Structures are given as C-alpha cells and as structure tokens.
Amino acid sequence: MEGVETEISGAITPKWQIHAGYSYLHSQIKTAANPRDDGIFLLVPKHSANLWTTYQVTPGLTVGGGVNAMSGITSSAGMHAGGYATFDAMAAYRFTPKLKLQINADNIFNRHYYARVGGTNTFNIPGSERSLTANLRYSF
C-alpha cells in the first residue's frame, strides 16, 4: 500500500477553529494464495477527505459542522460501493467550568451508503444512518 495523508488545523480567528484532512491510498495485491484474497486492502477508499469547523458564538455556546467524504470501493467479487459524503453538526453549551452539554447530529441528510462490500449476499455492511446524541459531562 502506498499513499499520502495530510492534515491542517488552526484558528482562523480566536473564536473560529478549522480542521481539514485528505488521504490518498493506492492498494494493490501483487500475490495472493487465493485469487479472491483481497484482504482488507481493496476495501480501502482511494480518496478520503474531511473538513470540520467550530465557532464560539458566546463564551458558553459553541456550534460546528463538517463533512466526511470517501471515494468508492470494490471487492474482489466485483461488488462496488459508490463514493459518498456525510454531513455532521454539533452544538455545545458550557454551563459552568465543570458542566458541559453537547449535542451531535451525524449524517444529518441521512445519506445511504455502504461502509463495506463483499459478495452478492454477504459482508455488505451499510453505513451509519442519521443519529442524534447528547452528552452531559461533569468534570471533578
């Protein structure tokens, strides 16, 4: 497997943070005991990218959003899963220095995609559907 991975993150302003990443991977099985022995390498997308940003609206309130994108993958059995992008969002409120509430919305447009493909009837794993989670954290 050969490739390159790069990330950049920083503050655009004191209240606005950004993080971006990109990965290019070239995977190839040169010899295998079994002609269908693709291991996991053919199931790795060639291109993947992410972008995430947060903004501190008030001293207690932070909002953010981002996108994760992957190119398509193909199994040795010839099954193909197309590329996809999912969008996420979050909001967090710090009530006190020790108490924080955060709500995350993942895959907010409910994009249907396959995280893994295998054969016609096996090992085809759908990606995560839209979800909403809340986390209340108290530090002591």
From TrEMBL:
<dbReference type="InterPro" id="IPR036942">
    <property type="entry name" value="Beta-barrel_TonB_sf"/>
</dbReference>
<keyword id="KW-0798">TonB box</keyword>
<keyword id="KW-0813">Transport</keyword>
<keyword id="KW-0812">Transmembrane</keyword>
<dbReference type="InterPro" id="IPR039426">
    <property type="entry name" value="TonB-dep_rcpt-like"/>
</dbReference>
<dbReference type="GO" id="GO:0015344">
    <property type="term" value="F:siderophore uptake transmembrane transporter activity"/>
</dbReference>
<comment type="similarity">
    <text>Belongs to the TonB-dependent receptor family.</text>
</comment>
<keyword id="KW-0675">Receptor</keyword>
<protein>
    <submittedName>
        <fullName>Iron complex outermembrane recepter protein</fullName>
    </submittedName>
</protein>
<dbReference type="InterPro" id="IPR000531">
    <property type="entry name" value="Beta-barrel_TonB"/>
</dbReference>
<keyword id="KW-1134">Transmembrane beta strand</keyword>
<feature type="domain" description="TonB-dependent receptor-like beta-barrel">
    <location>
        <begin position="3"/>
        <end position="108"/>
    </location>
</feature>
<dbReference type="Pfam" id="PF00593">
    <property type="entry name" value="TonB_dep_Rec_b-barrel"/>
</dbReference>
<keyword id="KW-0472">Membrane</keyword>
<dbReference type="GO" id="GO:0009279">
    <property type="term" value="C:cell outer membrane"/>
</dbReference>
<keyword id="KW-0998">Cell outer membrane</keyword>
